[in-house]
# Entry
Amino acid sequence: MSKALPLLTRQGDRIAIVNGLRTPFAKQATAYHGIPAMDLGKMAVSELLARSGIDPQLIEQLVFGQVVQMPEAPNIAREIVLGTGMSVHTDAYSVSRACATSFQAIANVAESIIAGNIGIGIAGGADSSSVLPIGVSKALARTLVDASKARTLAGRLKLFSKLKLRDLLPVPPAVAEYSTGLRMGDTAEQMAKTYAIGREEQDALAHRSHTLAAQAWAQGLLLDEVMTAYVPPYNTALAEDNNIRKDSSLAAYARLKPAFDRQHGSVTAANSTPLTDGAAAVLMMSEARARELGLAPLGYLRSYAFTAIDVRQDMLLGPSYATPLALARAGITLADLALIDMHEAFAAQTLANLKMFASPTFAREKLGLAQAIGEVDMDKFNVLGGSIAYGHPFAATGARMVTQTLHELKRRGGGLGLATACAAGGLGAAMVVEAA
Amino acid sequence: MMRTENALHEQRAKPSAFQFTLRPDNIGVITIDVPDEKVNTLKAEFAEQINAVLLKAQQIAALEGLVIISGKPDSFIAGADISMIAACASREAAQTLAKKGQSTLAQIAAFPVPVVAAIHGACLGGGLELALACHSRVCSLDDKTVLGLPEVQLGLLPGSGGTQRLPRLVGASRALDMMLTGKHLRARQALRSGLVDDAVPQAILLQTAVAQVKQGWRAQRQLPWRERLLNGPLGRSLLFSIVRRKTREKTRGNYPAAERIIQVVRTGLDSGSRNGYEAEALAFGELAMSPQSAALRSLFFAATALKKARGSEAQPHPLRCVGILGGGLMGGGIACVTATRGELPVRIKDVDTQGINRALQYTWGVLGKRVRSKRLRPAQRQKQMMLISGATNWCGFEQVDIVIEAVFEELALKQQMVAEVEQHAAPHTVFASNTSSLPIAQIAANAARPQQVIGLHYFSPVEKMPLVEVIPHAGTSDETIATAVALAHKQGKTAIVVADRAGFYVNRILAPYINEAARCLLDGEPIESLDRALVDFGFPVGPITLLDEVGIDVGTKIIPVLEAELGPRFAAPAAFDALHKDGRKGRKNGRGFYLYPTGKVRWRWRKRVDERVYTLLGITPKAHIPHALIAQRCVMMMLNEAVRCLDEGVVRSARDGDIGAVFGIGFPPFLGGPFRYIDHLGAAEVVKILVHLQQQYGEHFAPCERLQQMAQQGARFYP
# Structure
């Protein structure tokens, strides 16, 4: 296993996360219906700049991500730069790492700062599950290409005559893993069964997530990191996430039927994260630069790690692989953390990961470590709730978790925090941050 | 003798604005580059220069053709130098000027080899006439390229053949539309209408023009079928009768230029271009000497001068971000012009999110219209919307350079806003109040930095009204004044600096005018009749409609302030309290003197008076006052008060007073503003009318001292 790998610029400065902001997250086809991810991203970045009080000219790079791509604007990052009050000279590119996309964006900006290529950057992500690239069938797409090459009308008609009626139906984006054809929920089901995660346990975690998130909002803990969103046609404003159940009761979860395996399953709509719209972004620079500009950072990026495992089995165990690596690079152990924030794609996936954290067998066999990663103290775990409650606009979740963890660390008087997520394709991401 | 010789010498020493170069392919290029000027404008002395350069070109035997292009980065020819007209002492002199222009351009038209105009940037007025005289035209696709004949806006007509060449090129109906509105066409519109033969990227403009020259003579483009139909004997009479009627509806006979344009175009089409040119020069001579044109030109000069004026000696503070307090109608409007015209980020603070949504809706609505008419791409709209953000707290105000307050009209609240802005914004942040009735000095009374408090009075609807009053109080610093003026300019507004006296300038002269209309109403004159009388006089809307637009509640707020500060002549008729008590605020709450559509009935809505107003006021309407007298009563009140304002230093000059009245109220532009109108009538005549009205209708008509003095001395406001 690799040893500590400090994230410092050549001048020895830490990578500061100066500010983080997100839009409220909204359930599919609710408050942001019809608003593309790009516009959500613009909103979050504009407001981040307005609140930070930094001259937009100083932003040298913007790295942004979007999981559900819109073909008309493939480089969402550059569109955000061009579509807000930012300088046209701000470099911008887009990244994609499924549910860990904005972890990747943050890592990229950090690497650029460490390499000395840029001084200040913005990282983030946005996704909309309400505005989707609904396409045409493969047969129709192929015919359209051929038709554009055909010389005569008769030739064109002949091509179209071969199409079947069902080829003309619109095709929504796939929800299944491309390489296996498995839906994400199928994997969650598999993990629930393999690791014996019961329905009650899953429902309890979901209930906990909603209850804690509702408390966080009720106490006004999120006001500094969540903007109020004003979207066309500007009739109502959205100030809070609209997926959180304010009156969550455990009994209600038990009533739902399993969503993926109707007969033997335990994963339900209520103990999974819903399809959500939203955007999140963070402003990053070296700590020296922040000092120069008179900005007080929220915290610093201490280490990060990305891992990859097989997709057929246990695909969502990413956190259990990425976390020990990130901890090692930070030169710490799980016990040194004041907070642990794990992305809740499914309660089953979250609980399976927690089991693996505590499992010496897993550590020995899969990680090659002598000891388990560690038993997670639930008083430090997802203390403000997780993705099951907040929702999960794929590319925005990482930036949400990092910002939320830093704010909570600050409230608790400092220390180190972990943010970790699984992602499609068997990927895992983990980041260790420290409060300023 | 010596002097003339010197002058001649100087003229010779000055390089010509028209430079000729011959390309190796025997195509001549005439480059227009007026020395020591930012943009090209045509001057009288250029006639000789053009003649000289054409003569030089003609001597080249192998010459295949000519291209005329500008040497300036972003203007072809922005128009003719208007001061030429002021220099004409008589109708004949102006007529000669037009003929000289005609004959110069005729030489281009008659040039033996093809002449092509290569247009990039503004090509307006005389510039377009020059381009029309060429055998064909190519323009760049740049956004800066605009073509038009705006002479009508100065009370003139295109006097160098434009009225004859344009209808033949694009058809009478389109030509009349261009000349009667003075509107600018952009490159693609110009291409579609046939005004230019090609529109290309600027990089290949000259190349394309040269290629057109090489193609040699080409048959003239046939007019589209619609224009051909309208050019037939039947079509033509129909077209002209419709255009005449519509124009008359708009001008109400107040703008002779419009009617002369129609007449001259008709003459040219009916009896040939020779007669047309003759009629054009004659009409130009007459219009150039008309008081309407003189008034419109003086307004043009005044507005141009004010656009350059900084308001004070100091340098303005750079503007990077603007804060707005209150997202109501005014706040929303100010946010809109700041973001869309000024391209500055705007931060709105309101007590609730609904206020911020309202402000965003305002700009969304304004931009939505532009998107629907394809003048704006949705992505551009999105970008402009992104400049406006809002919050219900003070976050984001640390970096605003100026805050414009548009909160409820209440002194304590405004003072509190000053205190809070001083606490939350930067030390340099200027606090500008959009108050219409409160003294700025009082708003600044408890300020820690009173030198940074100023009034910035916008008019509703903000995105349409071109005026802003800038109101320093006694302690306002010069830098603050300059910063406020700079912001107004960025927002595309014309700013006048006025004194911190009750009502400032615009509302102060507006109040007696509206009060007088109210007195006529209480005499039983119907509302429509009052409005029509003043629209006929030349106002864009009548006084009662205006009161509905401004808000009856705004009136009831300002009038008592004016009355308390300036005397009983401002007292509103007591009966009007009934309207206020009835909750009538005007258009904004859909309850005013007129009925306003609610919900879905907007389609085909015709404006009607709310008859219940008469009952409330206890009158039976019956038209009985002659319209001319109504207009006289209202306008004389305004003139008298305007003179008082100048006398008391509320406005810095007659020029500012004229601009304020025309841009802020819509005082008839063809009269040039209250002061120019008084000059036109003569102070003695104005005093005579006022005295007469005083005897008939009461003391409030008593002519002010300054007017009486001027009447005695035969003095004028303008030299």
Summary: The radius of gyration of chain A is 22 Å.
